[in-house]
Specification:
Elements lengths: L3 H16 L9 E6 L2 E4 L15 E3 L16 H10 L5 E5 L2 H8 L4 E2 L12 E2 L1 E2 L7 H10 L5 E4 L3 E6 L2 H24 L7 H19 L1
Parallel strand pairs: 7-8
Antiparallel strand pairs: 1-2, 1-4, 2-3, 4-9, 5-6, 8-9
Helix pairs in contact: 2-4, 3-5
Bound molecules: zinc ion (ZN).
Length: 215
């Protein structure tokens, strides 16, 4: 089995989404870009049971070699993100409770907290609804991700991108936390949303911190 370390990292990230409550059961999926295409979690296998050989290697067009498990039903989103966004090295998809609540309201997540900026803009958009696993859902997801590293999927969940697995996981977690804060503020009153100019400053600073963290 090639890409052993990356397969292990995909499994570790998938398990962390369960540990921190970003997903439950066998919902959601995780992938990482690989030299031959990308590695993605299979459909229907609990994350606890995953072995490196269960992770599915798809080429850039989304075709699998022989004798592999079936890839997650949302493999088209992962394939299309890697094709359209060369800077992205990993994709995390979850059905996290608070982002999914917003997604069921078909609402964007506004900049109710400055860390909404980790997704690259002053809001996290909710993609137009389409049936799970379809080309149409992938198209709608790519459109909602324009200039961003996260979007909500209407009546479905959350997609987060990053240059690597740790970065994509962090975006998913921060966006879910911000969605929880938004939900809490709406329960008490009317949240104060940071304006576009302030969010541009925030995003610039987050970029600087990201750079120094890499050094
Ligand atoms: Zn899903």
């Amino acid at each position: 089995v090639s890409n052993w370390a990356l397969r292990r990292a995909v499994i570790e990230t998938a398990r962390r989404t369960l540990e921190v409550g970003l997903t439950h059961g066998t919902s959601g999926n995780v992938s990482a870009r690989a030299p031959e295409g990308f590695l993605i979690t299979p459909t229907g296998v609990p994350y606890a049971d995953l072995q490196p050989s269960d992770i599915v290697l798809l080429d850039a067009g989304g075709s699998a070699g022989r004798r592999q498990r079936r890839p997650s039903s949302e493999w088209r989103i992962h394939r299309d993100v890697y094709a359209a966004r060369p800077e992205v090295g990993a994709v995390v998809h979850v059905h996290a409770p608070f982002t999914t609540t917003l997604a069921c309201l078909r609402r964007d997540l506004p900049a109710v907290h400055y860390l909404v900026g980790v997704a690259g803009g002053s809001s996290v958009r909710c993609a137009t609804y389409a049936t799970f696993g379809t080309e149409e859902l992938s198209r709608n997801t790519l459109a909602a991700l324009e200039g961003r590293t996260a979007c909500l999927l209407a009546n479905h969940g959350l997609v987060a991108l990053g240059r690597n697995l740790a970065a994509a996981f962090r975006v998913a977690l921060e966006v879910e936390r911000a969605a929880e804060l938004y939900w809490r503020t709406l329960a008490v009153g009317e949240p104060v949303v940071l304006d576009h100019a302030e969010m541009e400053r925030v995003i610039e600073r987050l970029r600087d911190y990201g750079r120094s963290a890499q050094e």
